[in-house]
Amino acid sequence: MKSLWKPNEVKKIQADLLALRVYTSQLLGRESDLVLQGGGNTSVKIKMKDDFGDEQDILFVKGSGWDLATIEKPGFAPVKLEALKRMAEFDHLTDRDMVRMQRAAMLNPNAPNPSVEAILHAIIPFRFVDHTHADAVVAVSNTKDGEKRIKEIYGKRVLIVPYVMPGFILAKKIYEMTKSLDWSSIEGIVLLQHGIFTFNDEAKDSYQTMIRLVDQAEKYLKKKGAVFSVPRTVESKIDYKVLAHIRKVVSQAAKASMLAKCECADGRLIFSRRKNLREVAGRGPLTPDHVIRTKRIPVVIKDDPAGDVAKFTREYQKYFKKYARDEKPLDPSPRWAVWPEVGTICFGRTFQEVEIVSDISLHTIRAIESAERLGGWNALSEKDIFEMEYWDLEQAKLKKVGLAPAFLGKIVLVTGAASGIGRACVEIFRSQGAVVSALDLNPSVKTIFADKAILPICCDVTKISDLQKAVELTVSRFGGLDVVVSNAGTFPSSEHIAQMRMETWEKSLTVNLNSHQQLLKETIPYLSLGIDPSVIVVGSKNVPAPGPGASAYSVAKAGLTQLARIAALELAPLGIRVNVVHPNAVFDTGIWTKDVLAKRAKAYGMSVDDYKISNLLKVVISAKDVAELIAVMAGTVFLKTTGAQIPIDGGNDRVI
Predict the structure, then answer these.
(1) Are 491 and 577 in a shared domain?
(2) Is the Cα dihedral 236, 237, 238, 239 positive or negative?
(3) Nearest Cα to Cα of residue 118 among 89, 97, 87
């Protein structure tokens, strides 16, 4: 562990205590081995005047919901120091009263809720206080002789505190332990199976003490041969259909669509090969703070995913009944899995949730492996973990306001995604909560979307090998497939049958028909394991109302529509809906170049402007209009509809 402090970065802010607090907080947050996914907290005590001009001692402490890696000044809650100190003198204080009193003592009512550790920060008699859940320190303390080993590392230079619940209980415990303590005799506080505090009147010294103490724990692990190293040659093979099946049974257990990300690197495969895997994975999390993200333990998947997940949910329900008083049970589904001989799978309703679980599970695996080499992984008891999992102040972090987006947890694949209807579909589905795999032949698809929940794939849909790879990448990244928007297409130049070039005819059939058949073939096995699976085929007005000079396009689209009708018949027993949308005159798409538009308008004896609104309603149809209809057709409104053909053309007299 190395210090990231840079004197030249501090020169301009060294007189601003809160700016220094932001700076060192971000330094801590950059180190995932110190702070994971919003964990840890920091504070600074500052004398300042209130609205009446009276000088007060104020504790600026990390606010709830802020991440140390990105925190700024507004992320710190200003609380009257004296009020927090007096709260520490209470014999008992409920969580609700603690939150209420902390908010009542804030200078700024619009600031975020103070950290649950605000009282503890207040009673530590130094200006700067840093708290992390350092992997190395927690890994050492999470062994059978954890306290003894912590003493071996630090001697009397740290105060060692047995695990108690965070918040008021922890603050009260340390308040009692330090009444007669000479604070200058210690450099930090180690909370067994929880984390570490450091402190100093100088920001640099508090931060660098944290780095130094954690570095000593890391060196101790190395000296004892307990550092988990990963061979680079280790590989595993994912069975993507089994992964999709696992994702489905977990979604069923959660009664909600879940994403599932399978990972085999960074030691996950090695961990999955442990002979005592079930036993060691079932001992508990790295720190209790992680339980709201990962649940207490992972599920171990073997030959029967449905049976393994069902057993996990039964055991979780028993665990809940054993310790619950008046709490309401959370969903009993797992948040991560160990897949023997493959790696791990992380679950979540959003891609961000999956990434959080992935990060935590990796650090947990590394800590378990280190602790096992140091005498044995020894996590907290079930009861302690339950109290943290169902602690009101922890559950508040997960509560969401309003209805869930329509496609939350759903996985969508869109072809022709770099422009026009395809791009609009990607954006619409993503805005409604889905993760999206965006396929296009144009390499620009790689740079169009910056969202991690959108997987851009440069793909030639006319090549089976490209499609196979794209589908496997999608399933590997997200866990399965629920919606396919079969949209990729080309609009040939206008050629009458008598003058038709064979390459024009064949290219249209290849792109506008054959590629869609290949896409269906590759995605059906995964759609059959999807959640409310649906295929939306983008047809054309030319199917019911073809025009002269467009035989290559019209015939291919007619064949595509017939393919979709047959697919609706064949896939209904699998629960897969197949519907067709027939757009017309959608001019903000890639196939409608200025040249093509001018030629088509001329063929109908119209100006370009008149041609754009040559429908009964005299309206312009945009790619977004079509995408919104496609999203509706893929959703619950069309849950009991298959084989339908829906026009979106402003009304066409020839079709009607």
Answers:
(1) yes
(2) negative
(3) 87
Could you list the residue range(s) of the whole structural domain that residue 213 is in?
A: 7-223
- Residues 207, 266: one domain? no
**At what angle are helices 515-527 and 240-254 packed, to 10 degrees?**
50
Based on the domain organization, do 587 and 541 belong to the same domain? Answer: yes
| CB atoms near residue 558 (< 10 Å) | 18
Average pLDDT over the chain reads 93
In eight-state DSSP terms, residue 184 is: G
| Number of domains the chain is built from | 3
Q: For the domain that residue 121 is a member of, what is the CATH number?
A: 3.40.225.10
- Residue 274 CA, chain-centre distance (Å), reads 27
For residue 465, pLDDT over 90 is answered with yes
Q: Per the structure block, which two tokens stand in for 109?
A: 């009512």
In sequence order, what E strands does 254-367 have?
Answer: 259-263, 299-300, 336-339, 343-348
Mean local confidence (pLDDT), 575-594: 89
Taking only the tens place, the pLDDT of each residue in 401-457 is 567 899 999 999 999 999 999 999 999 999 999 999 999 999 999 999 999 999 999
Whether residues 448 and 582 share a domain: the answer is yes
Cα–Cα distances (Å) from 583 to 85, 576, 627, 633, in that order, read: 68, 23, 10, 14
Q: What is the pLDDT of residues 222-269, one digit of tens each?
A: 999 988 877 665 667 899 999 999 999 999 999 999 999 999 887 899
Q: Kindly state whether residue 613 falls inside one of the protein's structural domains.
A: no
